[in-house]
Amino acid sequence: MTLPIGTTAPDFEAETTEGKIKFHDWIGNSWALLFSHPKDFTPVCTTELGALAKLKPEFDKRGVKLIGLSVDPIDRHAKWADDIKETQGAAPNYPLIGDTDFNVSKLYEMLPASTSGDPLTRTPADNQTVRNVFIIGPDKKIKLVLVYPMTTGRNFQEILRVIDSLQLTAKHRVATPADWTQGEDVIIAGSVSNDEAKTIYPQGWKEPKPYIRIVPQPK
Known about the structure:
The chain has 219 residues and is of the alpha+beta class. Helix content is 31%, strand content 22%. It is built from six helices and eleven strands. A hairpin with a 2-residue loop joins β1 (13-16) and β2. α2 (43-61) packs across α3. GO terms for molecular function: peroxiredoxin activity.
């Protein structure tokens, strides 16, 4: 039950804490991070929403718009925001979708198509599969999907690291190795022949194996 990487992110219209949006229009020419929550007033999600609010300047620097989702209605999101500010030191400074008809959750295959009823009667366990992160590019394609259990808070530093890699590799024909962080060496993509690589990297590269060609991170 997960949309594949490389597919177009489903478009939708939804009510949010910052007004009604049409998702693709809202993304515009930016990147987007859509992250979902099974229920308002849940402990792990409360910490996540606060953490992301504090990190928003880092996402802004990368041209990434943030948007959250919960199946609860907008008025509950507003009350939850007060708790988040009180306990985490920062309230959400990005829109939260009120997915009360489960439309977005179904489109993104986080809940079965048969899901219906009053969202307020559902428990967090009923919605435990609504715990995804989707990173979407300016081309509206899904670049990454992460699915977390309810008991494990998301690591937004890792998500920032992945965004750095996605944006670098979208611009340059390289790949990033395990545990790569901004400024470290990268790998020439396998789609680049040695003849092409000599043109792109006239200074050469380190080659511990013919299929591993290491170069400094492109600027």
